């Protein structure tokens, strides 16, 4: 014999039958009934601290300060530009080094030429005597 605390056991009532039409939030009965919901929710927009971003084609795209299309740069584009900037800085450093080396060579040759001219001038004066 089951012991019950209040004298009878728990027996829930029957639930009422469901309505025939769907109550799903994924299906709407409006003008857009035939459209895919991904078109309606295609772009995710985000605003954090005045910075706007949109999720497009699998990556976040910054809308820039003004929100105009001129400020839109993808993270892939930023990475490409950083790589290009790094490459150009390395090339610039190499060119600076080459210029410095050429200036040193020019200085050395100028000094050598000056010394040879002095020697030649000294020899000419000696020969005239």
Helix and strand run: HEEEEH
Question: How widely separated are the two ends?
Answer: 147 Å
Radius of gyration: 42 Å
Count of alpha and pi helical runs: 2
Mean pLDDT comes to 78
The largest sheet, given as strand count, sense and whether it forms a barrel, is: 4 strands, antiparallel
- Share of helix among residues? 40-55%
**What is the approximate shape?**
rod-shaped
By DSSP, the count of extended strands is 4
Strand content: 5-15%
Strand order of the largest sheet: 1-2-3-4
* Helix and strand composition category: alpha+beta
* Low-confidence segments: none
Molecular structure report:
The protein is of the alpha+beta class and 129 residues long. It is built from two helices and four strands, in the order αββββα. The chain has helices at 37-40, 75-128; strands spanning 44-48, 51-56, 59-64, 73-74. The chain has a four-stranded antiparallel beta sheet. It starts with 36 loop residues before the first helix and ends with a helix. This is Chibby. Residues 71-105 form a coiled coil. Residues 1-25 have a biased composition (Low complexity). Keywords: Coiled coil.
């Amino acid at each position: 014999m089951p012991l019950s605390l209040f004298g009878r056991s728990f027996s829930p009532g029957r639930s009422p039958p469901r309505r025939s039409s769907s109550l799903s939030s994924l299906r709407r009965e409006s003008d857009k009934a035939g459209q895919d919901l991904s078109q309606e929710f295609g772009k995710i927009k985000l605003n954090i601290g005045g910075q706007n971003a949109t999720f497009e084609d699998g990556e976040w795209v910054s809308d820039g300060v003004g929100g105009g299309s001129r400020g839109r740069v993808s993270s892939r584009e930023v990475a490409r530009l950083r790589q290009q900037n790094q490459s150009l800085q390395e090339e610039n450093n190499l060119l600076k080094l080459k210029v410095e080396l050429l200036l040193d060579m020019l200085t050395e040759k100028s000094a050598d030429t000056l010394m040879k001219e002095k020697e030649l001038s000294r020899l000419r004066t000696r020969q005239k005597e």
